[in-house]
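Long-time lurker, first post. I've been practising inverse folding by hand and with some scripts of my own, and I keep getting stuck on stretches where the structure tokens seem ambiguous. Below is the full token string for one chain I'm working on. Before anyone asks, I'm not after the true native sequence, just a reasonable design that respects the backbone. If someone could post their per-position residues I'd love to compare against what I wrote down in my notebook.
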């Protein structure tokens, strides 16, 4: 009888241990810490695995991860963050802006590069300079201040606007 109790206790313990190591779908939303807006296109990696995803336009994500896993969240312009899942199936993440990183990044036609690594010519257009111009659109104002660069609006979704910049 005593042997049966020991076997039963070991079985329950092993079952609990295997349940805690199982993968599950973790969902959530990534938002901006200053205004609560969703953060689209953030990269979410489950540390120690090859599982990853990106947030959609509404900042929502879903990824397969162990219940004791850790999510690593990164996107340019925000402080990277690691969040323990802790057995939860819904993990909402708030990212704080990294203003220093934005000062040191330059958006180029095919990606983003650190300012100190950039070679070639650049044009800096300040928002206050654009505000002084009498133009029909912001794109027209930007075009007038960027000689030799063609600017075409390709897609506009809520707060995200994708532009195509071409050197003439």
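-- Answer (accepted) --
I ran through it position by position. Result:
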């Amino acid at each position: 009888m005593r042997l049966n109790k020991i076997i039963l206790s070991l079985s329950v313990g092993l079952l609990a241990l295997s349940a805690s190591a199982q993968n599950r779908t973790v969902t959530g939303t990534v938002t901006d810490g200053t205004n609560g807006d969703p953060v689209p296109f953030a990269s979410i990696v489950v540390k120690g695995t090859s599982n990853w995803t990106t947030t959609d336009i509404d900042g929502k994500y879903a990824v397969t991860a162990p219940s004791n896993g850790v999510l690593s969240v990164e996107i340019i312009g925000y402080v990277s963050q690691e969040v323990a899942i802790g057995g939860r199936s819904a993990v909402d993440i708030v990212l704080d802006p990294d203003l220093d990183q934005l000062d040191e990044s330059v958006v180029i036609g095919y990606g983003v590069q650190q300012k100190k690594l950039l070679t070639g010519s650049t044009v800096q257009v300040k928002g206050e300079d654009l505000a002084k111009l009498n133009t029909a659109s912001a794109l027209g104002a930007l075009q007038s201040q960027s000689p030799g660069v063609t600017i075409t609006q390709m897609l506009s979704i809520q707060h995200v606007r994708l532009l195509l910049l071409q050197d003439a």
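A couple of notes from the structure itself: The mean pLDDT is 75. The helical segments are 2-20, 99-103, 127-131, 138-144. Happy to go over any region you disagree with.
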